[in-house]
Design brief:
- With 191 residues, the chain is an alpha/beta fold.
- Helix content is 58%, strand content 12%.
- It has a five-stranded parallel β-sheet with strand order 2-3-1-4-5, with helices on both faces.
- Helix 2 packs across helix 3, helix 4 runs parallel beside helix 5 and helix 6 crosses helix 7.
- The longest helix has 15 residues.
- The site of adenosine monophosphate has 17 residues, from helix 2 and helix 3.
Length: 191
């Protein structure tokens, strides 16, 4: 079983790459952003709780996010591995994930970080917002706030996973195919 975390700022390409990697390595892809958007669209109680935070580009509180993530993992008991996209985003989430997986006698094998400069990411997000209609991708102020949240709360996870010797940086600039190849080679080299 192989369990991967895809790490990177908004717009780094985590969702795009996860879609390829899940097919190649037969993994279940869990995107907390997608799960929140699904719940908002379907007007669930969870969606109602998450909406105001997402609208501002703030992180949804840890406990709500962690409970949702655990439920999603438990919905896939036959999975041969998971690819976590957009989770964990805080140290509390990372610690909760480690404890949760340990109880199942599994663990995160590697955290793969897609690295790219802010200016490129803002441009990508604005283009994505125009194509998808996603409101948090259309407003540069909200985008900047998501980066701020990332810098304050998520960036420290780099050291968290480096401390576990699981952190790998990947150049996130290039064509989609090039980046998929970089990630695939890296995963193939993990032992
Ligand atoms: P994403 O699609 O990953 O860019 O996530 C969109 C939004 O969903 C974020 O800006 C947060 O408001 C919320 N979100 C997604 N994942 C998390 C998480 N792990 N922790 C807290 N909030 C999250």
């Amino acid at each position: 079983m192989i369990n991967l975390v895809l790490f990177g700022k908004p717009g780094a390409g985590k969702g795009t790459q996860a879609a390829f990697l899940k097919a190649t390595f037969n993994l279940v892809h869990i995107s907390t952003g997608d799960l929140f958007r699904y719940n908002i669209k379907n007007k669930t109680a969870l969606g109602e709780k998450a909406q105001s935070f997402m609208d501002q580009g703030d992180l949804v509180p840890d406990q709500i996010t962690i409970d949702m993530l655990k439920a999603e993992v438990d919905r896939n008991p036959k999975a041969e591995g998971f690819i976590f996209d957009g989770f964990p985003r805080t140290k509390a989430q990372a610690q909760a994930l480690d404890i949760f997986l340990k109880a199942k006698k599994i663990q995160i094998n590697a955290t793969l970080a897609l690295e790219a400069d802010d200016d490129i990411l803002v441009q990508r997000l604005l283009e994505r917002g125009e194509a998808s209609g996603r409101s948090d991708d259309q407003d540069e102020l909200k985008i900047r706030n998501r980066f701020e949240e990332y810098n304050q709360k998520t960036e420290p996870l780099r050291d968290y996973y480096k401390g576990q010797k699981k952190f790998h940086s990947v150049n996130g600039i290039g064509s989609i195919e090039e980046i998929t190849e970089r990630l695939t080679n890296l995963i193939g080299s993990l032992n």
